[in-house]
Known about the structure:
By secondary structure, the protein is an alpha+beta fold. The chain has helices spanning 2-18, 42-54, 58-65, 82-92, 124-154, 170-182, 186-199, 204-212, and strands at 21-27, 34-39, 69-71, 96-104, 107-116. This is GAF domain-containing protein.
Amino acid sequence: MAESRIVEIxxxxxxxxxxxxxxVAVLTDxxxxxxxxxxxxxxAARIDELQFTTGExxxxxxxxxxxxxxxxxxxxxxxxxxxxxSELVGELGVNAVFAFPLLDGGAKLGVLEMYRRExxxxxxxxxxxxxxxxxxxxxxxxxxxxxxxxxxxxxTIEQHQGPFAPERADVNIAVGILSATLRVAPEEAxxxxxxxxxxxxxxxxxxxxxxxxxxxxxxxxxxxA
Length: 225
């Protein structure tokens, strides 16, 4: 199965690339929405979520540019991502981040995200291992995306056991709810959702879930504008 392949490759990166944590995510073309496929640790998942919530970080840049982002000492680049870098170093004790885009031909699918607590660059061998992992993950992600699309066509999404569980749609649904309720464009609704999630120290996925399932007042969001 594609899911087990994604997990296998991610876990292997820990030793072959010599990093402390790995996350794999797929993103929409504009990088406005992403879906975390696998994370080897809570910190890896937190780093992925932090970039999505703040809208900044090397993983997003790697996806947008379609080329690796190598930051052996993230504090050297703090000016580029002040909020992300501050949280990364201060809260998680992570000092190095490496991101490789997942590609299928010329199409961008997502990103392989890796971190180290120690400030240390990748060796040539580790860089090559990361490239191989990103290529393999790109193929595995395509299989998973096709599988997910098939469940949608058959109306059996609740039976799909891969990374794309039904609740993954919460962010898109929450943006739609905010857009309609607050009478703003989807882009503005997405920005407000991110801002509120950051202000409340919540993951954007968690806040979206609360909004969709009526556990959070939409009126509260107007104060984040």
